Amino acid sequence: MAAPLSTVVDVYFTDTKRTRFGVTTPCRQKTIRKFFIHCATSNSTSEAPPTPSSDNNKNKKKNTSLSDQLAPLANKTLSTVAGDQSYALSKPKSTWVNPTKAKRTVLSSERQKRATYSYSSQSTDLKRFAHKLNECGSSEDELLPCLEDIPRPVTRENVLLILNTLKPWQKTRVFLNWIKTQNLLPMETIFYNVTMKSLRFGKQFALIEELAHQMIDTGVPLDNITYSTIISCAKKCNLFDKAVHWFERMYKTGLMPDEVTYATILDVYATLGKVEEVISLYERGRATGWKPDSITFSVLGKMFGEAGDYDGIRYVFQEMESVGVKPNLVVYNTLLEAMGKAGKPGFARGLFEEMIEWGIVPNEKTLTAVIKIYGKARWSRDALELWQRMKENGWPMDFILYNTLLNMCADAGLVKEAETLFRDMKQSAHCKPDSYSYTAMLNIYGSQGDVEKAMKLFEEMCMSGAELNVMGITCLIQCLGRAMEFDGLVRVFDTSVERGIKPDDRLCGCLLSVVSLSQASKDEEKVLACLRQANPKLVAFIQLIEDEKTSFETVKEEFKGIMSSAAVEVRRPFCNCLIDICRNKDLLERAHELLYLGTLYGLYPSLHNKTDEEWCLDVRSLSVGAALTALEEWMWTLTKIVKREETLPELFLAQTGTGAHKFAQGLNISFASHLRKLAVPFRKSEEKVGCFTATREDLVSWVQSNSTTAATAT
């Protein structure tokens, strides 16, 4: 008998994982686990293993090492006689195990054997028949006659081969129906599953659901794959309620969803904004032994991120830690994009830095998401610092990333930084400037009013072969128009049209604004010629409103037609420019008519705001001419209200904005000048920048004074 030999190994497990986002977690105490090691030798009698308590007492007396404790084991089990080593030194049968791959879950190599097809004459005939079916039409009238030539006998394997081969989905459906009508084989679940997958590829959810009901009616069982196909197709077709319905039905039958199905239905619930259902489903799945993967956590992170739920994101990371799933690049990219939509740059920056600390290398998608977040938050310096880190670390950069940085520089007015970026692109081997890169630079130079650099860049763009686009041309024409460079404007417009640019409503609006800036000069006709080529109806309307004989009803009808045919985002700019043109030609009455029509058709929804304490005229979205017209209209209305002795608020406010943009500063200056011209009692507010205020007493006094002056003059 072998004598059992035992010892106690004390193993200490300490939690060294760090906590993310400063989440407070309970302190974990050291866990002591004791394992008994029993060995046997053929030369000794049996001995009872010592109890843990007795062994602990020994350890209290002397703190021996593990090797010392195992020394008796070695002496009893390892022979010192040379003749006894033959068995130990005999070479066992070698079995190599790849340490980098997980142990296979399939216990037997005989399980789930792949269906084999013999290369017989029948197999050749079957392949030829499947090829013939794919060449014929998809309708029943074309396909059914061909099915009569199917090689016999019709076996299960042959049916599956044809179902998997047929394309498109119409043929798969016709073939399945033909098999059912022929009664050649019992209808199995796998026949329906293969057909459903083909239908899913064609987004035919209604037909898939019809097949599912047929299976239920005829007693063919729906398995895990059946439900998974139905649910994924419903999601693919944006039929989220259907996806939820079939998932709940699956759950009631006792079938366990796989990882993909769980991730799919979680994404459906997240899309529907059902946070509580997502959490409930997640916890229900975990209770049944389901182990979520990184895709699942990406769905959860996206949902919580877009909702701005930071506790939810912390929850995602703690669940990830508990199931042993490490956040990968896909998870971080999803969370960063969600942070961008939520508008939380600080949290996104912390998330990005944590990703770097974990040793995960960002890709182009990661960096673009972070740059967009910084640009939206106007964290231009952070974005440029990140760009410097990209170069130092050799992180990947592509067109989208470079162009995102250039657009951020354009929004922030960082000319030198943009020029450095653009220069780097020219020197890059794989990211040469494209059409969008040139457009961003044209926008930068145009916003700065740098005509010389803008025109030089345009010439370079034409020579480089980069495709012109309407956005870049619009930026350049706007720059040239503000600089009164009409000849250059005409040349740029003609070149762009020759190279295939089709003027859109924004370009027409830009040309219309240049017409308003020309102030009836001799160069106005040059711009009108370009506008006539782009939008002849708009030029015809300008001529209509310039004719004082044109009635208001005619103007109203034509104005409605012009605005109805224009894109929504350009309707108010169109109206602003038309009012400016009328004021430049001293057509003040027509300007007031256009302002009335613009208000009537909802182009100025926030022009007037009233509370019991304050009435406000907000002209921040108006051009200079339109703002002055609105001021005149407002003062005329207030004069009538005062004369009728109606109730008035304590304070009157006119908002022009701060004029932070270079070309927006003129509104504030012109508005102040017009206030002085009208001699109205509005003064610049010391508390609110870009605001002019007047009290009720001042306004009433001004109206009464003007009435007295008018009576004296008569």
TrEMBL record:
Question: Where do the record's region annotations for Disordered lie?
Answer: 42-70
Enumerate the Gene Ontology biological process terms.
Answer: positive regulation of translation
- InterPro entries cross-referenced by the UniProt entry: PPR_rpt, Smr_dom, TPR-like_helical_dom_sf
List the transmembrane segments.
Answer: none
Q: Which Gene3D superfamilies match?
A: Tetratricopeptide repeat domain
- Keyword Lipid biosynthesis (UniProt): no
Molecular function terms from GO: mRNA binding; rRNA primary transcript binding
Assigned GO CC terms:
chloroplast stroma
Q: Which residues form the Smr domain?
A: 617-700
In terms of SMART domains, this protein maps to: SMR
Q: Which domain of life is it from?
A: Eukaryota
The PPR repeats are at: 223-257, 258-292, 293-327, 328-362, 363-397, 398-432, 434-468
Which key words tag this protein in UniProt? Repeat
NCBIfam families per UniProt: PPR
Family that this chain belongs to: Belongs to the PPR family. P subfamily.
- PANTHER family in the record, alphabetically? OS03G0856100 PROTEIN (PTHR47447)
- Protein name, please? Smr domain-containing protein
Q: Which organism is it from?
A: Sphenostylis stenocarpa
